[in-house]
């Protein structure tokens, strides 16, 4: 292979290597949240349903939503919902918190989880968009 061919190949590949990792996409996360809507709400009018409302989720302690009847496993888990903890949990809720009442097959796709987190991060504890 000639030097010219090597340089040509590099010029084609370099722009792709220089691309940053895909950013979180809150709009895509909102679409993903459709999987959660049967049990959870978010936003200013959110209320507890089958599951607790999810306003201010990131940074909140597990089992902390007032008025929601959590399982003992969830209340006593000692978890704080940061991005890493939520990512592990949403992949397989019953593996992360054995004894949780949450019945959900999980979301395995890393990009989808990141987008869902970006969607949640838009809402403060009162459901107001930041």
Automatic annotation (TrEMBL):
Alphabetic keyword roster: Electron transport, Heme, Iron, Metal-binding, Signal, Transport
Domain EF-hand stretches: 111-130
Signal peptide (residue range): 1-23
Source organism superkingdom: Bacteria
GO molecular function terms noted in the UniProt entry: calcium ion binding; electron transfer activity; heme binding
PROSITE patterns per UniProt: CYTC (PS51007), EF_HAND_2 (PS50222)
Ranges for domain Cytochrome c: 24-124
Pfam families (alphabetical): Cytochrom_C
Stated name of the protein: Cytochrome c
């Amino acid at each position: 292979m000639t030097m010219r061919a090597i340089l040509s190949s590099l010029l084609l590949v370099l722009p792709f290597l220089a691309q940053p990792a895909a950013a979180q996409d809150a709009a895509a996360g909102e679409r993903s949240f459709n999987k959660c809507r049967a049990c959870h709400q978010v936003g200013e009018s959110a209320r507890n349903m089958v599951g607790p409302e999810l306003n201010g989720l990131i940074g909140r302690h597990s089992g902390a939503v007032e008025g929601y009847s959590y399982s003992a496993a969830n209340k006593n888990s000692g978890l704080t919902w940061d991005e890493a903890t939520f990512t592990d949990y949403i992949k397989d809720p019953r593996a992360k918190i054995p004894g949780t009442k949450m019945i959900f097959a999980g979301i395995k796709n890393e990009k989808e989880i990141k987008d869902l987190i970006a969607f949640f991060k838009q809402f403060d504890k009162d459901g107001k968009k930041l």
